[in-house]
Amino acid sequence: SAPEPSDPSDPSDPCKGCREVINKVIERYSQTWRKQENNYQQFSSQLSSQCHGLDRAIITQANTPVGSKIVYDGDKKKTLKVTPELFSTFAKEHPFPNKTWDTCAVVGNGGILTNSSCGDIIDSAQFVIRCNLPPLGKGYEKHVGTKTDIVTANPSIFLEKYGALMGRRRPFVESLHSYGKSRLLLPAFSYGHNTPVCMRAVYSIEDFESPIQPIFFNPEYLQSLALFWRSRGLRAVRLSTGIIMASIALEHCANVHLYGFWPFGNHPHGLHALTNHYYDDRQTKTKFHSMPAEFDLLLQLHSQGVLKLHLGDCQ
Ligand code: CDP
After folding, report:
1. 289 annotated active-site
2. Whether the CB of 291 sits within 6 Å of ligand 1
3. CB of 182 sitting under 6 A from ligand 1
């Protein structure tokens, strides 16, 4: 049932006037969701024809030969010529070339996952994508699962948690154990300063013989994806990792399920206060990202039966 309108002047109200916003969202969020095959086909082929994620999302030795010029997507004045040394760090071929998977779970880091019991259903997906090296142990398993096929890493994590990988690198490599043999997807060519720190991550993984396999976002793909979403009304400086990974999933997977996408401070059902992430309360940089606007677009896709957004608990 819909929550009552909240009283913004009531100091004991954890919601502080959020009910109207959340009510509107919940109204649009149909509980009796079903996939609409035509809408899904149409959307995923539009994505494919404008962004070509199936062969361009990831940098490979096939799409980025020695001598070619990489153009940074966050700083288009900056380019990098591919040397044999850099080339040797690229995946030989596209790691996920075909529409291979039946079901993919894309796990955002939203506090809505706290106590959600969504771990088992997330892990039951054929392919699981996670964002920004999120913690999986420490009692989080029950709520977020552990299976990981791709995990992304924002270089800011290397700077803040691992001393920019300038000193000892073992703690970083050990932190990757929980992701097993998955792929570590790095935005090495979004800004100039990302490249050296991402290369240190790659060489640390190689030198310590960690089973995780580093791969790079193709900045050409990220650029076309930004234009794709801009043409659908998204006016953000940068796409969030979550919407990028949801877009990649829509080209690769027949059934896309999103968990942990809820950029609001209160739970959609209980209306209790939520932390921004399921593991901490660090805030999103609103200067760059516009998560509520992205959420609105994802909710549209949910209503159209293109993907399924999971809000609320899973048991
Ligand atoms: O890299 P970024 O700061 O975008 O992401 P994050 O905070 O590590 O979270 C990963 C993704 O989860 C985001 O990119 C969003 O798409 C999604 N998210 C959300 O929808 N609601 C939240 N409260 C937090 C994250």
Report:
1. yes
2. yes
3. no
The tokens describing 160, both together, are 């803040």
CB 103 within 8 A of CB 125: yes
**Rounded mean pLDDT of 28-52?**
93
Alpha-helix residue ranges (DSSP H) falling in 13-87 = 19-28, 37-51, 53-56, 84-87
Q: From the CB of 240, is ligand 1 less than 6 Å away?
A: yes
* pLDDT, tens only, 189-207: 999 999 999 999 999 999 9
ipTM of the complex: 0.98
Are 287 and 237 contacting, i.e. CB atoms less than 8 angstroms apart? Answer: yes
User: What is the enclosing helix (H) or strand (E) of 128?
Assistant: strand 127-130
Which residue is catalytic, options 94, 257, 277, 289?
289
**Pocket of ligand 1, candidates 116, 284, 296, 311: which has the most ligand atoms within 8 Å of its Cβ, to mutate?**
284
